[in-house]
Design a protein that fits this description.
With 315 residues, the protein is α+β, with helices and mostly antiparallel strands. It is built from nine helices and 15 strands. Strands 1, 2, 3, 4, 5, 6, 7, 10, 11, 12, 13, 14 and 15 form a 13-stranded mixed sheet that branches. Helix 1 packs antiparallel against helix 3 and helix 5 runs antiparallel to helix 7. The model has no long low-confidence stretch (mean pLDDT 95).
């Protein structure tokens, strides 16, 4: 069955550019080969694109509809929770930094109406989604979601916890693999300060897989590990998630944890497989500030589909 996602993205990309005035299009539209296309910036910094705060209702809706083509319904809900947390964080900081839920940017690289190579990114503080479309094939990485505060509680219960599943399933995996599995999985007593791939455009492929390999886990542990990987793949539309799961099936996979295992302590984990890097950290603000990312070190920003395109063109 034909994958509908590329055409959905193309339609949404054309609609976005059509919804912008001349000044907005000038900020949003960039050449495909612009170096800014290969950017991941989840900190509150200047970035290319048009800011949602500067758009009218039609423009903002068009930007959100483009974002929704690259995320599953559940991940889109997570993304919207991340955006809303900007206002919560601004209040917690005493309104000093002027954070705003409109401070998100959308950029289009290439012309979705005519080009066989184009890309888009929706990005701001704690949210960065990059999609590349080449010959009607979608390359879907990196996808970053963060949350500060990671958890907001009232009367002992969470009222906001956008990345709770990512933490809870990893802890359930630690429980399921038993003492020997945990001893192999826990690689450091302290967590790193941030995800190791950070904001680098090229996720370091030299990060050595450490921790416990999947083939050393029993059936329950392996099933839990597969569930945790699926949480990240399921950030993508179903058609893309199924494709990625099929690509990884039967391949090597490692799970590593750093830091204490008690809830509320600073902790980190990562999952590595064939051209797969998943990282999670909750290491700032006393373990209440989370970062998560889904990357493909050899294929981020469309490197895989671009390589296939060039090979076909020069065959």
């Amino acid at each position: 069955m034909e994958d509908p996602v590329p055409e959905q993205m193309r339609t949404a990309g054309v609609a976005l550019l059509g919804a912008l005035d001349e000044a907005g299009r000038a900020r949003a539209a960039h050449p495909f080969d612009d170096a800014a296309r290969r950017q991941l910036e989840y900190r509150p910094r200047p970035r290319p694109g048009v800011c949602l705060a500067d758009l009218d209702r039609a423009g903002r809706k068009a930007a959100h509809r483009l974002l929704a083509t690259g995320l599953s319904p559940a991940a889109y809900a997570q993304a919207m929770a991340v955006v809303a947390l900007e206002e919560v964080l601004d209040r917690a900081e005493g309104w000093r930094r002027g954070r705003h839920s409109g401070d998100y940017w959308v950029a289009v690289f290439g012309d979705p109406a005519r080009d066989d190579r184009w890309a888009w990114r929706f990005e701001g503080h704690h949210l960065s989604v990059s999609m590349t479309v080449v010959d009607d094939q979608v390359s879907s990485a990196p996808v970053f979601l963060g949350a500060n505060p990671a958890t907001v509680r009232h009367a002992g219960h969470p009222v906001s916890r956008p990345l709770g599943v990512e933490e809870d399933l990893a802890r359930a995996l630690l429980d399921a693999i038993g003492p020997a599995g945990r001893a192999a999985a826990i690689v450091a007593d302290e967590a790193p300060a941030d995800i190791i791939s950070a904001t680098r455009p090229d996720a370091p492929g030299s990060i050595t897989p450490v921790g416990v390999p999947a083939d050393r886990l029993g059936p329950t542990g392996r099933a839990m590990l597969d569930q945790l990987v699926a949480v990240y793949l399921d950030r993508l539309p179903p058609e893309l998630a199924v494709r990625e799961a099929g690509r990884l099936a039967g391949g090597p996979l490692h799970f590593a944890w750093a830091g204490p295992t008690r809830p509320g302590q600073r902790h980190y984990y990562r999952l590595q497989g064939d051209d797969l890097l998943i990282e999670y950290d909750n290491t700032s603000d006393d373990g209440n500030h989370a970062h998560t990312v889904l990357r493909r070190p050899a294929s981020d920003f469309g490197a895989d589909v671009l390589a296939a395109h060039h090979a076909e063109a020069h065959r």
